[in-house]
Amino acid sequence: MTIPVFDAQIPATASPKVEFISLSHLNPSTELNPVKVPHGIDLDYFKRYVATLEEQEFDYTLLPYGSNSADSFVTAAAVGTLTERIRPIVALRPNTTFPLVAAQKLATLDQLTQGRAVVHLISGGSDDEQHRQGDYEPKPRRYARTGEYIDLLRRAWTEKEPFSHEGEFYRFDDFGPGFATYSGDPIPISIGGQSQEAFDIGGTQADIFSFWGEPLPELRTEIDRVNAIAAAAGRPNPRIWVTFRPIVAATDAEAWEKAYDYIGKIGATYEKAAYFTRRHQSKATNIGSVRALEFAGASERYDRALWTRTAAATGGQGASTALVGSPETVAAAILDYVDAGADLVSIRGYDTLADATEYGRYVLPLVRQEIAHRAATGRRGTLQSEHLGYYSDDFVAAADSAADKAAALEGAGA
Q1: Which of 26, 204, 253, 289 is the most interior residue, by most CB within 10 Å?
Q2: In which element (H, E) is residue 148 found?
Q3: pLDDT at site 276
Q4: Quick check: 66 and 279 in contact, CB under 8 A?
Q5: What pLDDT is stored for residue 286 in this prediction?
Q6: Cα–Cα distances in Å, from 258 out to 217, 309, 326, 351, 403?
Q7: Any residues with CB less than 8 A from the CB of 389 and at least 6 apart, and which?
Q8: Above pLDDT 70, what percent of the chain?
Q9: Closest Cα to residue 270, out of 34, 69, 39?
C-alpha cells in the first residue's frame, strides 16, 4: 500500500471545521446484545443516553424513523427538553407528513429548542419499507416528491403572505403565513442517497448531503459530484455528512481483538434476526447498500482504518462500516475524511452507550485539538503522520493476528 504524504500542508479540500453527530437510542438493545424491550422505549436509558451525548459534547443527534419505530418528531422534542445544546435531527419521510404540517411541526420544535432543529429527509431506499406505510411511488418519483417538499417547507417558513400551490404531488389554497422558525430563517435540510436523483436534489436544494463511510477516493469523487451539481445551480456546496461505526480500544491491537469479537456477535444477531425481525431485514437494493456490499466484497480494509467486515455481516443494512483502532488512529482516520471535505461526522457505536462515552472522552477531543491547531497555525499537526493505521506494518500485523485468533476459535467451535 502506498503511504500518502501527511506533511504540514493542509489539503485544499479540507473542511476548516468539524461537528459530531450521534444517533439517539431509545433502549439498551444492540446488535451485539439484542434484548426484548416490552414497550420499545426504556425511558431511563433514553434519558441517560441523551445526557451522555450532552456531557461528551456531541453537537447533534439523529432521531431515526421507520415504519415500526418511535415517532421522530416526538423523540426530537424529548431531546430538546432534556438538553441545552444538542441539536436534534428529525428523520422524516415525505410520504408520512404533509409538507405544510411538517413545516409547522419543525418550526415548533425549532422555537422550543431556540433554533436547534434540523431535518433529514428520507425519500426511501427500500420499496418494501415504503409499502408498509402506503407509499407505492417508484424511487425516481419519490425523489421528485422530495424536491417539491423542500420547496414547500422553505416557503412555509419564509413567505410573508398567503400562497397557493398546485404541483405534481401537492395542492392547497391560501396557506399562510406559516408558523415561523426561531430565527425566521429556514431550518437546515439534509438528504442522502447514491442515486442520480439523490445527487440532483442534494446539489440543487439541500443544505447538507449525507454519505455512509466509504473509501476515501470514492467518497471524494462523490463529494465532487454533488458540488458540481450545486455549482451548476448557482448554489453553495452543501455541507458533507459522513457516518461510521468506530470500534475503539486503548491500543490498536486491543481494538482489533474487540472488532473480531464484535463481528461474531453481529453476524449471529443478523443470522437469527434477533435485532430486527426478518421481515424488516430487507434485502439491500438501494445504491448505498449495494455499494457498501461491493466494497466489502472487494476488501475488508481500506485507507487508514476503514473496515467493511461489519457492513458484510449486516447485509448492508444502514450505515455499518467501521473505523478500527486506538483513539489516536480513529481520530486520524476521521481527519482524513475532514481533509476530503466532510464537516459533519456521525460516529455511533455497536455498544451504543459505552461507545458514546468512549468517543466523547478519547476521540472527539483529539479531532478538535487538531482543528484548533490548524486554525491557529495554518498547518496540519502530527496526529495523522504518527498514527498510520493500515499504512503501518504493526497495525496490519495486529489486524492479521486478531483475524487468525478469531478463525482458530471458530474452527474449534468456540
Answers
A1: 289
A2: helix 139-158
A3: 53
A4: no
A5: 77
A6: 27, 13, 11, 11, 11
A7: 252, 303, 304, 305, 325, 329, 332, 333, 395
A8: 96
A9: 34
The residues near 357 (Cβ < 8 Å, ≥ 6 apart) are 52, 56
Element (DSSP H or E) covering residue 189 = strand 189-192
pLDDT at 280 over 50: no
Give every CB contact of residue 264 below 8 A, 6+ residues apart in sequence: 406, 410
- Answer whether 121's CB lies under 8 Å from 152's CB: no
State the pLDDT confidence band at 279, using cuts at 50, 70 and 90: very low
Q: Which domains does the chain have, with CATH numbers?
A: 19-407 (3.20.20.30)
Question: For the purposes of burial, counting CB atoms within 10 Å of the CB of 164, is it exposed (0-12), middle (13-18) or buried (19 or more)?
Answer: exposed
Q: Is the Cα dihedral 52, 56, 61, 66 positive or negative?
A: negative
45, burial (CB in 10 Å: exposed 0-12, middle 13-18, buried 19+)? middle
Judge if the upstream peptide bond of residue 138 is cis by omega within 30 degrees of 0: no
Phi, psi of 73 (to 5 degrees): -65, -45
Residues 6+ apart with CB under 8 A from 384: 6, 304, 332, 335, 336
Position of cell 428529525?
90
Residue pair 261/210 in contact (Cβ under 8 Å)? The answer is no
Strands 322-325 and 247-248: parallel
